[in-house]
Amino acid sequence: MLFLDVFGEYNFLVRDSLILLVLALSVYVLLHAGMFAVPQVGFMALGAYASAILTTRTEVGLAVSLLVAGAVGVAAGAVLSVLLARLNGIYLAISTIAFGEIVRVTMRNLEVAGGGLPLVGIPRTLDDVTLMVVVGLSLVGLVRLARSRYGQAIVAIREDPLSAAHQGVSVRAYRVVLFGLSGLLAALAGGMSVHLTGFVEPGLFNFDLLVDALAAVVLGGMTVVAGPVLGGLIIFGLPEFLHFFAQYRTLVNGFLIVVVIGLAPEGLALLPRALVRRVRSRRAATVHSADAPPAEKVEEGVARALATGGDTALEVRGVAKHFGGIKALDGVDLAVGAEEILGVIGPNGSGKTTLLNVISGVYRPDSGSVAIGGEDVGDRLGRPHRLARTGLARTFQTIRLVQDRSVQENVEIGAYLDRGAEGIVPSILGLPPYLRSRRRVRREVALLLGELGLADLARTEVALLPYGAQRKVEIARALMSHPRVLLLDEPTAGMSPAERDEVFALVREVRQRHVAVVVIEHDVRAMAQTCDRLAVLNFGRLLLVDSPERAINSEAVIDAYIGRSA
Amino acid sequence: MKPTSLVAAAAAGLLFLTGCGTSDGGSSGVDDSTITVGFLGNLTGDASGPYGKPFQNGMELAIADIEKSGVLDDAGLDLKVLTEDTGSELSTAVTKYNGFRNKDVDIVVSDSISTIAAGLAPLATSDKVPFLTGSGSPIENSEGYGFHLADLDTPMTTLGEQMAEQGLRKVIAVVDGDNPSFKTMANSFEKGMKGAGGAGLIDTVTVTAADTDFSSLMTKIQSSGADGVFISLLPEGSGNVVRQMEQYGGLDDVEPIGTIAWSGQMYEVAEDAAVGIRFALPWAPGLPSSAEFEEAYVAKYDAEPNAYSAIGYETAWLIAQAAVMAADDGAVSAEALKDALPDASTSEVLAERGVIDDFSLDAAGDPSYPGTVATFDDGGQIVAATD
Amino acid sequence: MSALTQQLANGVALGSVFALYALGFSLVLANLRVFNLAHAAVFTWGAIVAWRLVDGFGIPLVLAIPATAVVSGLLNVACYLLLVSHLERRKNKELAGFISTLGGFIVLTEAALLYLDRRAVRLPSDSFPSATWDLGLFRINSIQVLILLVTVVVFLAYRWLLRSTSLGRSIRTAAFDEEVARLMGINARGVSAVVFFISGATAGLGAVLVAMAFTVIDGKLGSAYLITAIAVMVIGGFGSMSGVFVGGILVGVVSTTTTAYISSSYRDVVIFGVLLVFLVARPTGLFRGSDVEERV
Asked: Which of A330, B208, B378, C286 could make an S-S bridge to A540, C-beta 3.0–4.6 Å?
């Protein structure tokens, strides 16, 4: 069935472009997760040669050949991601470029792969149904993935990997899976390509091909599936129709890359939306959130929290952490009750943030232990995504939300762990368990936003909100995971007094949801009013933990702040 | 509303393209008196300078000569050439090839690039159209439709024989590892040397095309006491080696030897050091037997012809003669042309009119000719070496 | 054994070229955290400019060299202004910068190929004297000595600049924290431009030397050294000048010995392989550069 022959002379070009689209999608898979890696041409070469060698030496059909190519791609992707697990940014990019070169040079020297000469005689069995099925499934699969909780997790990873980890997302696991997926698509593209042309040679998988695929994704947009489609149309399809320009296409590609990255970094596919947003942001006045209505308990969540045993929500024992020669934490002991607000104060550099970082897993402590809900967290220390599962949530000094998404979408990601029922298959196929779970989460989000006075802002883009509202959104997100312990690191930094009061009111309300709160702040007066107890840190040591009046009037504390000589 | 009109627009677009593209199937590409040649030339892009344009010029010149000779008229035949530019790109080449199919060409010709040759050969075979390429590597010939025209093997063997006869005993080779054709040429050269009673290569150093520092090679040449160095690299790299040999000093007695891959670019890099160095080509200017061709080419194109001009010229005559022979036997179909090509290559007409001495093509699609030993003259021009 | 020492000597000379290339590259990378891929194209254009001056206008090499360095420096500054400076505020500026300079690299390289009509050119052979000296264990020629000397001088000059001058202090401050630098009255943009200028000038200088030593100038000149330079920086250590210098020599020696005793195609695999091993096992390289902890 060669229905693409309807394109007449351009039938090869159309098929070739569709195959390159799949390659562009494999580039998109990694880039849209913020993973700065470009091994796809190497994967494509592996898939192509696997298919080529298999079908020139045996009698297997197209389906088996593509299956084998795909399997090779998945395996290569997974293995590569494990090898490069600790690399990020430029290092990751370089190593994947090096990988592509190694594959190419190896293929060139391998006798079984033709020893550098074109390997010909590959059965040209690629039919259009298979091609369209692969393209179609890839597109549909990726679109549905983007809408599922996995897609949300990927957005979170792209925007802020540390924050994503605190929502329970295992960045490392996602990396392996995404590399495998990227490998699958690129290898399939390779396999299909050799069954279209009938030959393969190492020179085909060169830097120019990578640049074309990269250009297509950058031009169209790295963050949406429509991006590579639009970009692919421009990069692969257009030059054929503009003959004079065809000679200079590499030059023009490079130029387009610079222009798009500079002026329209979201890509052309999202340009309409970006322009609309630019217009809207000029018109948006400050948005105020409504006053918080009286607290209503969210029944399910409370029931879950109450079900946990023990009155001590968080216990920290003998925690120490040093950086180089500096002892940031020097043996800290703390216990926080299930409905308590514990304030942590101290001069700058006293170790407050480090303490929170150790508890939430940003750092591994050098010694000491942490227990949540009575259970020692053990080897989860230093692993934020695992600690998140024990009922821990936090905010950071800076706002860590996905700025270009709505309030509702941001808060939804907080329920990531809660949506285990939405497995990958039900999500992509749209099965009932997925739909039910998604509905339930959306209801919860709406309810929570209502309680916090953010209902009117549900659809508003976070970037348009004032600082105070954004912080509330962060706290809402944290609450979605029904935590036992909520850590807040200077939540009101840089806010106006009115905003500050709102946040402290919210903190008091959070306590009523049976959540223990540990909050770091500098406004000692507000802390004294809000907190049940105050812990005072100085030079990594706990000076005292006591009621607010006793704490702020203690000589030792005043000494620490003002620095009277002993 | 909107989606519907979008679909309608898409449908209209498809119909438009369909209208542009459908072939009328039906006829088997036979118009008994006109032979349509589809020429897919690399007229722009990387391959245009050294291969595409010279080949096209050679073909054009040959067609003018064929017309003057009346060979086709006598047989009641006519030659038509359709030309398309592939831009040195495979996908463009295939698109243009498809276009030719729709116009029922009898034979397809491409000047160069092994990727294009490898990609088009299976298509031509399944369409049962003879396909000739100026590429040096063998192509698919399962049903006898694929022919390549550049012989990398025999001219190098000839050169090897000559070098051995001249008394070279210890030759070291430097080979470009990126493309196996370079290794093939070294093998042929060695075969030639041994065939004339000489020794084989004493060592082979493999480099990559991008290499510019040959100091390790220089050291090897010196320490091995070689009397000759066989340089199987791209022209720039080859020129670079010769230059660095000069710079290194102490290697004046080592004779550099080149390959069929050499071109004027080599002289541009090595300048005076290149004068007198021997290499081999399918054809080089300065041969008495093709003086007329040279003159006519220079007069018409204001440039010296190169080996690819000669191959292009030869190819046009080959096709014409094959057509005449096929017409003699009956109909001039694509299949008949394919069958006639080998015989046409060894015919008297081609021996007389062609410019490449002892040119022959076999049914397996491989060419063979002794080639010419060439060198650079004082002005940097490539000429046949006379001695 | 003398062949081996000769190969080692060749390796040191070749390695100096790598080191020179990598020094310029890493100056920008370490201080501005920009992976300037366009550096490779600036290198290529440096060689082309030198060729144009000497071959086209007949300017003696002695004058052409500094002129080339200046022109290359300015070209690199143009790259900064057009490709990098507008991305400085972005959240994902590393990725954006990489892609943007990749685009710039493509444009400039294509332009070079088109300008040279996809051919290779060379400096006229009489533009510089070439002498060879036999030192017993190995021979060395004047150009190799010149390259080694220039590399050492540039390396020392970089160190002096960064450690002992006020400009160097400004550079290091801006590298540490741009906000802080601004607050201290340092013109961060101006400093960045100067860094790009020095980097480009070094590239141009290296390109002329390479053209003298290895003859061929073509559109892909800078690209050929790019991957090797990256390997040098990873192996030697990104932030460290000494690391880059030592790394360069090391890679040069590996390169010549592999070519001599195995083959050059495998040389690439060897270098990439070593690169990957370092990236996986010891990404900071042999010498630790200045690292900045991530603030949370």
From this structure: A330
Domain B154-281 belongs in CATH node 3.40.50.720 = no
Which pair of structure tokens corresponds to residue C283? 């990404």
Q: What is d(CA B206, CA B197) in angstroms, rounded to the nearest whole number?
A: 26
Question: pLDDT tens digits for B169-215?
Answer: 899 999 988 777 888 899 999 999 999 988 889 888 888 877 788 88
Q: Report pLDDT for B177.
A: 80
**pLDDT of A137 higher than 90:** yes
Q: Any idea which residue has 């298959």 for tokens?
A: A425
The sign of the dihedral angle between the CA atoms of C251, C256, C261, C264 is positive
Q: How many CB pairs under 8 A join A and C?
A: 111
In chain A, what are the domains? 8-205 (no CATH), 206-283 (no CATH), 299-404+475-562 (3.40.50.300)
Give the model's pLDDT for residue B30. 45
Q: What is the ipTM of this complex?
A: 0.85
Number of C-alpha atoms within 13 angstroms, CB side, residue A62?
16
Q: Cβ separation of A9 and B87 shorter than 8 Å?
A: no
Helices (H), B34-147: 53-69, 71-74, 90-102, 114-127
Determine the residue of chain A that is closest to C284 in CA distance.
A91
Determine the residue of chain A that is closest to C226 in CA distance. A94
Domains in chain C, start-ordered, CATH in brackets? 2-124+133-281 (1.10.3470)
Confidence of residue A305 (pLDDT cuts 50, 70, 90): very low
Mutate to test the interface with A, among B86, B90, B98, B101 (most CBs of A within 10 A): B98
User: Tokens for B282?
Assistant: 């399918």
- Residue A65 phi, psi dihedral angles, 5° rounding: -60, -45
pLDDT score at A243: 65
As beta bridge partners, residue B83 has B39
Backbone angles phi, psi at C287, to 5 degrees: -110, 130
Q: How far is CA B181 from CA A519, B135, B193, in A?
A: 72, 11, 19
Rounded to the nearest integer, the mean pLDDT of chain C is: 84
Average pLDDT, chain A: 86
Is B219's pLDDT higher than 70?
yes
